Amino acid sequence: MSHAFWVMATGSLVAASCGFIGCFLLLRRMTMLGDAISHAVLPGIVVAFLVSNSLEGMTMLIGATIVGLLTSFLIQTLHTGGVQSDAAIGITFTSLFAIGVVLVSMYASDIHLDVQHVLYGEIAYVPWEVATLAGIEMPRAVWMMGGVFVLSLLVVGLLYKEIKLSSFDPQMAAAIGIPVLLIHYILMALVSMNTVAAFESVGAILVVAMIVVPGATAYLYTDRLHLMLGCSIVLGVLSAVGGYNLAAYFDVSISGAMVTVSGALFFLSFLFSPRYGVASRYFTQRALRKEHQKES
């Protein structure tokens, strides 16, 4: 397989997996919590490296997941204690992210784990670091991101009804015995895993866009959750493939170009989507006015 194929494959997995799990954050009005976790997991990654002296994927996933759950717990505790929700998110993620930056500067500045790599990533280098599993050799990022994506699909598939009901009506879900808090932390664990798996490719800042934008775009096309999830995956793949070709043409950042295409798809959908697009609503209202005028 060519270098370009693996870059596009990695970008597609990142955008599809992050966008898929981001749909649930969007429905729960918790997209900023995804932002918080994507930044706050940094100290977990650094501590995992210091403990294991390895950048191996599973170690990073464990460290990030623990800190991601801690972030969610701290935010919820502060909010329950009387702090406004947005303030609780801001206080928690900026504090943890700052701790992570300090730890990187102190203990990990001379290795592959550096602040710029964590913030921006470099997807162009992904095909050069390969791993072999079951006799199949592929880039390590593809194995890691693909595994997290499959895990996300399996967990959501097994708990689909519970996650769906707790997302739309948590009070009703709790009344019929669904463990709403447990479902919440399962989703936060998946967000943490997706974030750290995507670090190597697109970095902490751009992964936020991957979590939010594909789901937000899909939301403009359908009111059905299963269609929204599928649409977010398709939009993520389109963003990755289109972004790579845009970056190759203009010789710019690949991950940045992927998010740029994702943003462009959102704004085009915002204007022209069949049901919720600005232009569609304008022409629908115009037609209704004309019909009303004829009747009167």
TrEMBL record:
<keyword id="KW-1003">Cell membrane</keyword>
<feature type="transmembrane region" description="Helical">
    <location>
        <begin position="32"/>
        <end position="51"/>
    </location>
</feature>
<keyword id="KW-0472">Membrane</keyword>
<feature type="transmembrane region" description="Helical">
    <location>
        <begin position="87"/>
        <end position="108"/>
    </location>
</feature>
<dbReference type="GO" id="GO:0010043">
    <property type="term" value="P:response to zinc ion"/>
</dbReference>
<dbReference type="InterPro" id="IPR001626">
    <property type="entry name" value="ABC_TroCD"/>
</dbReference>
<feature type="transmembrane region" description="Helical">
    <location>
        <begin position="6"/>
        <end position="27"/>
    </location>
</feature>
<dbReference type="GO" id="GO:0055085">
    <property type="term" value="P:transmembrane transport"/>
</dbReference>
<protein>
    <submittedName>
        <fullName>Manganese transport system membrane protein MntD</fullName>
    </submittedName>
</protein>
<keyword id="KW-0812">Transmembrane</keyword>
<feature type="transmembrane region" description="Helical">
    <location>
        <begin position="57"/>
        <end position="75"/>
    </location>
</feature>
<comment type="similarity">
    <text>Belongs to the ABC-3 integral membrane protein family.</text>
</comment>
<feature type="transmembrane region" description="Helical">
    <location>
        <begin position="227"/>
        <end position="246"/>
    </location>
</feature>
<feature type="transmembrane region" description="Helical">
    <location>
        <begin position="252"/>
        <end position="272"/>
    </location>
</feature>
<dbReference type="InterPro" id="IPR037294">
    <property type="entry name" value="ABC_BtuC-like"/>
</dbReference>
<feature type="transmembrane region" description="Helical">
    <location>
        <begin position="197"/>
        <end position="220"/>
    </location>
</feature>
<feature type="transmembrane region" description="Helical">
    <location>
        <begin position="172"/>
        <end position="191"/>
    </location>
</feature>
<keyword id="KW-0813">Transport</keyword>
<dbReference type="GO" id="GO:0043190">
    <property type="term" value="C:ATP-binding cassette (ABC) transporter complex"/>
</dbReference>
<keyword id="KW-1133">Transmembrane helix</keyword>
<feature type="transmembrane region" description="Helical">
    <location>
        <begin position="141"/>
        <end position="160"/>
    </location>
</feature>
<dbReference type="Pfam" id="PF00950">
    <property type="entry name" value="ABC-3"/>
</dbReference>
